[in-house]
Fold this sequence. Notes:
This protein is an alpha+beta fold. The protein has helices at residues 2-18, 86-98, 163-168, and strands at 25-30, 35-40, 44-52, 56-67, 70-78, 102-111, 118-126, 133-141, 144-152, 183-184. The chain has a single domain (23-184), classed as 3-Layer(aba) Sandwich (Protein Transport Mog1p, Chain A). Strands 3-4-5-9-8-7-6 form a 7-stranded antiparallel sheet. Strands 2-1-10 form a 3-stranded mixed sheet.
Amino acid sequence: MRSKSLIALAALALAAMTAPAEAAWKSYVSHALGFSFQAPGEVKALKVKYRGAVAGEHDAVAFRSIDDNIEYKVTVVDFAKRADEGAVIMEEAAYILQEDKHMLMNDFGRVEPGKDAVYGRKMAFDMPNNGGRKTVATYFTKGKLYMLEATVLPANGDYASPDAGRFVDSLVFVLSRSEQDATELQVPN
């Protein structure tokens, strides 16, 4: 009986050692851009371009990490001079993200409760050519467009992974509600 227990314990230890390492989830905040989110691994900041027929071309900032073959990305675009067009700009972004993809879910999203609520769009779709599954959310508040994208890549293959939803649902706009030990994101110049 004792040898069976030792064999079982050894098998568990071996399984634990050979399992893929997953990064711990951390909280990140940008006081300059007015938001917070959670993601696994090290988040890197990038300067990117955002383009839309209505929105035009704008400089943007993206924050990205990859863990366990899931790409997590938040893109923030400043539209302070066009804040009155926020609904159209947000819906155009949602359309661009899902265009020509196999839609699985298309629903309204909400960040923050009560009078602080910010409403947006949440979607999930399969990428063309078996390119994976993407869960996204778009929000427009205080003159900024926020787009969150979690792409479960084919190498991961677990398209039902809860990690994509956890990432998209971790967005916070009322920064007093963000984690106290959140890492401050550096916005590239």
